[in-house]
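fold-stage: in
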Amino acid sequence: MTLTLYYAPISCSLVPYIALSEAGAAFEIQVVDFRHGAHMSPDYLRLNPKHKVPVLVVDGKPLTENVAIQLWIARQFPQAQLLPEDPWDSFRAISLLAWCASGIHPHLTPNVLPQRYCDLPGSEASVRRCAQSMLRENFQVAEDILRGREWFFDHFTLPDAYFFWCFRRGRQFNVDLAAFPSCQAHFDRVSARASTQRLFAFESETLRKFEKTP
């Protein structure tokens, strides 16, 4: 089986990168350079007409959407225990993945691309302010879940990786996160994992290469 992950630095494609690393999977990386519009090229649009990352290509067949990719990884590599063993908890974990994808992620993008959400001149600050208010509301939900816990379940699972990315982006957008110490502690624990350290190293190297090819 050959696996190729289409990845862009900083983006949510780091989530399947971490999941594949946690699973001990052998995979190749194809970096998608959004700066130069690689995601809009004819070749990439044939792969994913939604012009987004991540895409996981499995033996030549593309799979899109983060939740689907993560569930495929969990089922293909069950020994990694990326979902809880208990059936009910497994569905709860899928619910958390869906929440990250549809409940948190959409409030991150307006911070970097506010013009997609309102084309009224001078509205950028208002769009960001509203998005950050919704982010804090969602982070409070996570704070309540994580208080007194290391992970969302009794060991590291896929929701930990996805929420890690969500919280990381909030930090990068300078959202006021002082009210969420449990989320911050969770972020630090995920950051320390070998899979995440591998991601950080690859991301840094990719960004260095970008700097050399403006």
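fold-stage: in (second)
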Amino acid sequence: MSCLMGIDLGTSSLKTLIMEKDGKTLALSKCKYEIQSPSPGFMEQNPRIWWKTCVQTIQECLHESRINSEDVVSLSFSGQMHGLVILDDKKSVIRPAILHNDSRSGDEVHELYDLLGRDDILEHMMNPIFTGSQLASLYWLKKNEIDQFRRIRYVLSPKDYLLFRLTGVISTDYSDASATLLYDIKEKCWWKKAFDCIGLPVRCMSPVRESVSPVGEITETAGQETGLSVKTIVCSGGGDQIMQAVGNGVLEPGKATVTIGSSGQVFIPTDRPVGNPRLNMHTFCGAQENIWFSMGAILSAGLSLKWIGNLLGENDFTELGRSAELAPAGSSGLIFLPYLNGERTPHMNPMLRGCFLGLSMGTRANDIIRSVMEGVAFALREAMETCLQITPEPNIWIASGGGTQSRIWMEILADVLDQPIYISRVEENAAVGAAVTAGVGAGVYNNLKEGCEEVISYQPEPFVPNPERVKRYEELYQIFIESYSSNKKKLEKLARIQRRNQNA
């Protein structure tokens, strides 16, 4: 039996999956962990926790599947993007990883724009500089933790730390390399000017490979810890958005995904790298050599629902969905701005904060919960519209992420976007995408297209927009847009007060 393993390193949990060639899942294990916030705006995790959960979930999958370890012919990864892992010359972790949703480096972002120049940024990096990117986090470390910065010998993206622990090899793929903001997207090489700017040698970065490229095999030490065979091939994998796209069968222009996970993304494949003069969306390398993608990202999607659930004493997402169903479309005139920790597309502003508009004596908990779901959908629509200003409109939109488990959230999304929303029958898209990638690397499939055709199918009926609700949401969406414009300065002032009070 030839089986494939996909490991999905997320922001809030790690998932490991074993599947057969036809996509049949033999085992799935998930382990949650928390984000640490030692100071306001700081978002960190200890990479050793990732490794611990990786070992645990691999062991559980091998036990659950009842297969021999030699049956796992290949594995690959999906990983949270942009995060910073730094190792010293002994390949030991120097400090906790700084995550993609970290907002400490706001001042450094402004400085980097001045140092690098917008024209060069657009020409080479083709992305806005944002807090939580490796570029910004490294520059913050240089200014604030100079002793730690001087010890850096290796700079890794999150999933590549797991690859290193399994194989002993330092390596990355094109998608994660392009997401560091240290990479020349057109030339596909590390951008020397960025390294000169932050005072870090290019040799600290990993060799870059295709997502399907075999990198090595399981070391004896990792085999003893995990139970995997030393003959198992380990492939590069890719960033979570690239792997969820593969796991949804989205490989080339015409299809696109909209994701509601901890954060939220709009992902549109393109056949060329598309620069955005306004620098308020992203352009990254895809899983295939001649495919790039445009992406709009929001920071707090599922995190917003988790936040309101914690406040209301309800941590079950299913129950939160049932509560939202009891509220009318439009949440009785309540609007939520989901900027709990700043925002990316299109605002690129770490100093924004969330708010509710329209609270009244008649507002119920059900209205509040639904308005959070609607606010996330409004933010995703704004990200979508930003991307479509320079990217051809796809024919098909496929929803991805944990939000697809909520029928009411998918109905809201279809109505707000005014688009049919398709759902893959594959539940763990990113992990499955990683497993398909592993299959190509091991020769189980000839290419990603063949692997996707073998594994992926869709629910027969999409979520279709309701004309009456579409009209209602259109009115509220315009208020949502206006609410940002009219409250931006106030929200920034409140963010500064919060930071001042928390640092007191």
